[in-house]
Amino acid sequence: MPVLLAPEQAPTLHELLAKANTIGLDCKPVDTSNEPAPRIRGLGSLTSAGPAEVSFLSNPKLQGQLDDCKAAAVIMTDAVYQTLQPESYSYRVVLCSQPYLMYALLAQWFDQHRIDRLETGIHPSAIVSPTAHIADGANIGPFCVVEEGARIGRGTRLGPHCVVGAQSVIGDDCLLHARVTLYHNVVVGDRAILHSGSVLGADGFGFAPDPHKEAGAWAKIAQIGGVVVGNDVEIGANTTVDRGALENTVIGNGVKLDNQIMIGHNSQIGDHTAMAACVGVAGSTIIGQRCTIAGAAMLSGHLVLGDDVHVSGGTAITSNISKPGRYTGVYPFSEHTQWQRNAAVLSQLAQLRRRLRSMEKNTQ
Amino acid sequence: MPVLLAPEQAPTLHELLAKANTIGLDCKPVDTSNEPAPRIRGLGSLTSAGPAEVSFLSNPKLQGQLDDCKAAAVIMTDAVYQTLQPESYSYRVVLCSQPYLMYALLAQWFDQHRIDRLETGIHPSAIVSPTAHIADGANIGPFCVVEEGARIGRGTRLGPHCVVGAQSVIGDDCLLHARVTLYHNVVVGDRAILHSGSVLGADGFGFAPDPHKEAGAWAKIAQIGGVVVGNDVEIGANTTVDRGALENTVIGNGVKLDNQIMIGHNSQIGDHTAMAACVGVAGSTIIGQRCTIAGAAMLSGHLVLGDDVHVSGGTAITSNISKPGRYTGVYPFSEHTQWQRNAAVLSQLAQLRRRLRSMEKNTQ
Amino acid sequence: MPVLLAPEQAPTLHELLAKANTIGLDCKPVDTSNEPAPRIRGLGSLTSAGPAEVSFLSNPKLQGQLDDCKAAAVIMTDAVYQTLQPESYSYRVVLCSQPYLMYALLAQWFDQHRIDRLETGIHPSAIVSPTAHIADGANIGPFCVVEEGARIGRGTRLGPHCVVGAQSVIGDDCLLHARVTLYHNVVVGDRAILHSGSVLGADGFGFAPDPHKEAGAWAKIAQIGGVVVGNDVEIGANTTVDRGALENTVIGNGVKLDNQIMIGHNSQIGDHTAMAACVGVAGSTIIGQRCTIAGAAMLSGHLVLGDDVHVSGGTAITSNISKPGRYTGVYPFSEHTQWQRNAAVLSQLAQLRRRLRSMEKNTQ
Q: Is a pLDDT exceeding 70 seen at residue C91?
């Protein structure tokens, strides 16, 4: 169920917009009604928003949905507003040059309102080492464990069942949802959002063949590096970031990682790079700034990707990329029988090329 | 180690079969022995079942294993029974038109027997908000956290370390294994089975470029929709179902999700659709009823798949599918050197086609 | 932050090397200095190690980094040592025929030193069934739950929030990091390392069509087998190993599984096989000894892979492999527009082959 504020907690439309204006986004309601501004209990899409919710139009393809929209107010550009027929709509219009960003800010406000109401302090069931330091205003949830020498910054909230390992550091104003695990010697910057089940600092996958044992046996290379996460990073549910073998695995500022991503040891992710779910990055790979890696892509180890590289979903990157742009390598799907017929030829491609060459020679 | 009942808890063969008969499955033992019916402590395969276990034959390829089977009883069709040589076997025969379904029901009985014996009530270590509602007969395990306004239905069991977020609702007769996390405003129907490490309601992956910050920076689009899960759903270990951006992510009735699956925000999964492990479904994709998605397949966002669509393992679905059937797109593996030779030609396919066309013209 | 010992806890170089010598690795410092042996607080790479750390050279490509290395000591082969110019370096040289293995051992020593200092005993917040057996010298961390009949071996350590299900058994000298979940009837051998979020023994994915319910409905096949894990196994963060349907899922001795791997029910993994992150193994697949499966590879169900099979990253294995060697099947990536041009031809490959054949006939 989408989140709705109780009516008595809901801000008026103008109070809500004032929030966005403070950060420099221009927006103003077209006030053609004498009625008092409605109270806004939540946000909705053009088709779902009810009379106590605000909606927005950013995708031009959805403009047709404006006619039947039942929202209290709709955020739109002036260009869209000029196309509206008077009397054809019942919502208030809010003009904004960037409706999508405006929507993002309003959604943040509603979510923050929910978070602000959570309790603060150290829950009596939490176990905090006497040598750990919890800043004022931090919240340590039920059954959390904060080990020796760890530090938790101001305004940071830990949901239930979080574990912060020895000597690990979390900055200010972070939000750790339930059940986030940091091993020892992991550093997280300010304003991080870490989702449930994420694990930072587990051992990287490092083994050396051990000739002193039976054939094939492995000796563990203990992973004694750490993890360093910058500011404004979000890490999705059940994502894992392994600790470095000797040095640190590094997640840059503003990096956004979706769910079930795996970042191998010693890797470095540049600032503002975003990865969709199920991506795997093998060890020691360095990724530039402002890259986007779409879902289920995989990157081999020991690679270097430059800035502004965009990898398509499901693509395996197996060599360095220095030039910005979009890169793809995914087998196009088709009906199964058609795939069978065509895929069978893949094992003969080199041979087909030879035969073609040979024909070309013969017919010259 | 497979689960075996203690001898004094084991039902007789007839007591066990009576259970299956109550739900309408025809089955009857061929009682050729004067000895008392054996007590059945567990189930096993034809090759592993011992003299206190029952087995079954459903796959005709395994019929040869009947000769050496040491089970107390074997469930089989009448057609198979007619082929048996008298004196060639020592087990009791149970005739059933659907041996595999019969096996499924018996296995359920054994597992349910185990579950029924677990303690009920609210474990003293659990933290339950005074505004949460726990129905009679529910079980809240050690170290669980049930937040404000949450509701847990009759007969529902939460293993250790489960977290049920604020205003979330779990129906009747559900089984949450250890360490399941529901964020706030997540609704789960009746008879759900949720496995350890699964996370329902983490934030969907939504960001808008933020031109007020440095180049490439992202503004978070807070995810204020919810998750709605139907009845009779099973969700595997470490699977994640993200909450909707504005509306709900929806999992239909009877949906079965294996481990380590990722369902993106706003997606909708139709009734009785089943997905094997490691599947990724990007956001806002709508999947029909009775689909099967094999392991490690990935579906792009904003797609629509109709009913009865079957996706092969490892296949990337990147466009809509309206027609029922099986769809595949996976690169066939081969020995590495052979793959190298053939894959190198992939980057020349368009050119090869041109050359072929040109030859065809020239030789006409 | 990489882990560094406090100066007063740091061993001298000779004390540290003595450790490695005890297991039969030859190594000796070239003692050309009259100064006392330095105390070693940690390990570092050639470029990062400082004057209280030891480093090593195993990769010949990095030999150029020796010139500027600031480490207290560098482990290298005699062959490398012979190439050094006197006076061109300030570190102590340690000669060793296997520098990489030596590094692995030293890293283990530093990490073990950290682990040895953790508390032992049963944390007062842990909930241990009266019928469970905890061996002397084991450590049960905060908020752990050990259910009835479970057994924990000598010297085994459970981090916070671990759950050991009923009748499960963990051997001696294991290390379970925070938040590891074992369901009931799971057996783990000695010296296992299990990382956070790993789940052993969740239900395998088994369903039978249920004709007694609505079209498409599934009947659950309760999973009543177990999981058996050998000695010296490591299992990565958020990896899942499902319990068998009737028999056991089996992980052999010395197997190393990275993060976010999924092992389906009834599978068997041979001794010393190693899998990198994000690999999926579907149910009932049998993998031989000493195999390596690179990241994000997937194996279909009911396959048999022999010993010494090596699967490349991202490769889908869909049929049996009996011959040792390396196998690959991944679509090579390219710039997106180039990929589009060439991939479009994939759906015409069978047709192209026919056209080529036809031309060959015509021009003969």
A: yes
Distance CA C8, CA B210 (A): 49
> Which 3 state secondary structure label does DSSP give A133?
strand
A161 at the C interface (CB within 8 A)? yes
C211, C207, C215, C212: which is closest to B308 by C-alpha?
Answer: C215
- Residue C243, pLDDT > 90, answer yes
Nearest to A29 by CA among A110, A102, A109: A102
Chain A residues touching C2 at Cβ < 8 A: 185, 224-226, 244, 246-248
Q: Does A351 touch chain C (CB under 8 A)?
A: no
Determine whether B209 is exposed, middle or buried from the number of CB atoms within 10 Å of its CB (0-12, 13-18, 19+).
middle
Measured between beta carbons, the chain C residues lying within 8 angstroms of B116 are none
| ipTM score assigned to the predicted complex | 0.94
Asked about A265 being catalytic, the answer comes back as: yes
The minimum CA-CA distance between C51 and chain B, rounded to whole Å, is: 38
Selecting from C24, C44, C197 the residue whose C-beta is nearest the C-beta of A212 gives: C24
CA–CA distance, B104 with C218 (Å, rounded to integer): 10
* Side-chain half-sphere exposure of C166, counting CA atoms within 13 A: 11
Q: What is the largest CA-CA distance in chain B?
A: 87
How, if at all, do strands C325-328 and A226-229 pair? unpaired
Contact A163, A223 (CB under 8 A): no
Other CB atoms closer than 10 Å to residue A97's CB: what's the count? 12
* Radius of gyration in angstroms for the set of CA atoms belonging to chain B, rounded to a whole number: 26
CA B112 to chain centre: 17
Among A161, A177, A265, A272, the active-site one is A265
Structural Rg of chain A based on CA atoms: 26
Residue B5's identity, in one-letter code, is L
Cβ-based contacts of C127 with chain B (< 8 Å): 125, 142-143, 160
d(CA B17, CA B242): 42
Contact status of C79 with chain B (Cβ, < 8 Å): no
**Average pLDDT score over chain C:** 93
> What is the C-alpha separation between A344 and C270, in angstroms, rounded?
31
> pTM for this structure?
0.95
